[in-house]
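The instructor's notes for this session suggest beginning with a concrete chain rather than abstract definitions. Hand out the sequence below and ask the class to guess, before any prediction is shown, which regions might be ordered.
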Amino acid sequence: MFLITCLLLVYYEKFYLFYPKELTFKFPFFIFLILLYLEIYIGIILKLKRTLRIKCPDKRLAKEIILIIHAHFIICPIFYLLIIKILKNSVL
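After discussion, reveal the predicted structure:
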């Protein structure tokens, strides 16, 4: 998952930050990475929900675990992008 996020960030950094006018949906690799990221995210959430429903008697704990996973998959890429932007601005 971290590798996919890094690839998305490298692709974003290479094509969007330096050439914002050229970022269109002509790049199938970028779309492929986003779809792969979403597929892994949805697959993990569905598998986790099914597993927690069977094995975890405490429903509050199960909901908290799922919220943590949601936060990781949604917030981490945004956080990584912000860090790259801050570092890029401070270095240049």
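Then share the key points. The chain has a mean pLDDT of 70. Helices lie at 2-17, 28-55, 59-91.
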